[in-house]
Amino acid sequence: MSNGGMMNIEKFSNAMGVSGDEWEIRRLLTEEAEKYADSVEIDAMGNIIALKRGTGGKKKLMAVAHMDEVGFLVTGIDESGFLKLGRVGGIDPRVCVDKRVIVGRDKIPGVIMVKPIHLTSRDERGKPVPFSSLLVDIGTEKKEETAKYVKLGDPVAFDTKFEKLSNSMIKGKAFDDRLGCVAIIELLKKRYKHDFYAVFTVQEEVVLRGASVIGERIKADYAIILEGTGAQDFPHKKDINKSPKIGAGPCVTIKDGRSFASKELLKLTVKVAEENKIPFQFKKPGVGGTDAGVLQISGTGIKTIVYATPARYIHSPVSISSVNDLKNKINLTDLVLKSL
Questions:
Q1: Is 291 known to sit in a ligand binding site?
Q2: What's the CA gap between 118 and 120, in Å, rounded?
Q3: CATH code, domain with 146
Q4: What b/e readout covers 289-324, taking b as 16+ CB neighbours within 10 angstroms?
Q5: Is residue 165 part of a domain?
Q6: 315 marked ligand binding residue
Q7: Which positions carry the signal peptide feature in this UniProt record (predicted)?
Q8: Given 22, 163, 204, 274, which residue is catalytic?
Q9: Residues 92-127: pLDDT tens digits?
Q10: Are residues 196 and 232 in the same domain?
Q11: Reduced to 3 states, what is the DSSP secondary structure of residue 249?
């Protein structure tokens, strides 16, 4: 991966892009894609479609990553000026308490507040904090004052800054799926025999909405979905599966809650990985869903497969992942695309 790729990890991770309002990450991705693609379009949903013409092949190849992240939106302002929240995507309220956030396109800083422990009853201390009790404090004192800075429907994102932890380990937010976005930009720097469509979708975290319009439009022959997935190699009960594991290579999905991998692409993936000594692992358990779920059943069908970078603590304010796993995912995808 290039030095530019490393810089993009930080830039994309830090960007704001809650599902339904992916304004900042879309701008950054468009700027990068325009450097390498032959054409770049943004459709009515907000998806980015970048095309790199092939050298003479007749097929259509597609790589897909979603640009959006889980977060919140403002649903109300109470009389004391605190913001009421609605969840956007799957977020456990336990990871939200006392976290820093940014609000709206002006990135107003705030904190998700909860009653401090010395003001809680013994009964309250023994129960998880319900999401409905979480409010955002932006430092104002009245509803009218807050309304000068925040509007209903404004996005709210976790305020987490990217950091390198070691030579290979990284920490940041939205690794699901900004690491996939980094991979696709790296692939756009190459040219393949067949036309290559690099697609960055919106609203994946809210029922795969962006991808639902892509399949029929492009009518690709093959699609590789580049994702982030939850690593489970952290302390827990001995009888609980610890796969996927960070450092063991990209996760290849055979089946999840929304799709089955194409047998042709699965066989080719294993062959390419083994011949080139690229580490990989199969995703376990086969739960969740990705853009592959709607792409493979669009039109007359698309042959799809998912390669995911494992990351600990996804859908939370911070994740940890390995640059080596991302590099191996890019290498595997590149060689598979060249083999089609």
A1: no
A2: 6
A3: 2.40.30.40
A4: ebbbbbbbebeeebbbbbbbbbbbbbbbbbbbbbbb
A5: no
A6: yes
A7: none
A8: 204
A9: 999 999 999 999 999 999 999 976 676 677 777 777
A10: yes
A11: coil
In sign, the C-alpha dihedral spanning 9, 15, 20, 21 is negative
Note the pTM of the prediction, 2 decimals: 0.94
275 is annotated as an active-site residue: no
Residues 118 and 183 both lie in one domain: no
Contact 117, 97 (CB under 8 A): no
Tokens standing for residue 219:
């009518």
100 and 63 belong to one structural domain: no
Say if residue 205 carries a ligand binding annotation. Answer: yes
Domain boundary among 158, 186, 219: 158
Helix (H/G/I), strand (E/B), else coil: 143: helix
Q: What length does the chain have?
A: 340
Is residue 127 located within the same domain as residue 36? no
Residue 176 marked as a ligand binder: yes
User: 96 is written with which tokens?
Assistant: 């939200």
Task: Give Cα separations from 338 to 41, 77, 195 (angstroms).
Answer: 24, 53, 11
- Distances in Å between the Cα of 26 and the Cα atoms of 43, 103, 162, 230 are 12, 17, 18, 24
Nearest C-alpha neighbor of 178 from the set 193, 194, 158: 158
66 is in an annotated binding site: yes
Whether residues 115 and 182 fall in one domain: no
User: Rounded CA gap, 67 and 59, in Å?
Assistant: 25
Q: What is the pLDDT of residues 76-99, one digit of tens each?
A: 999 999 999 999 999 999 999 999
For 250-304, the pLDDT digits (tens) are 999 999 988 999 999 999 999 999 999 999 999 886 778 999 999 999 999 999 9
- In a shared domain, residues 141 and 185: no
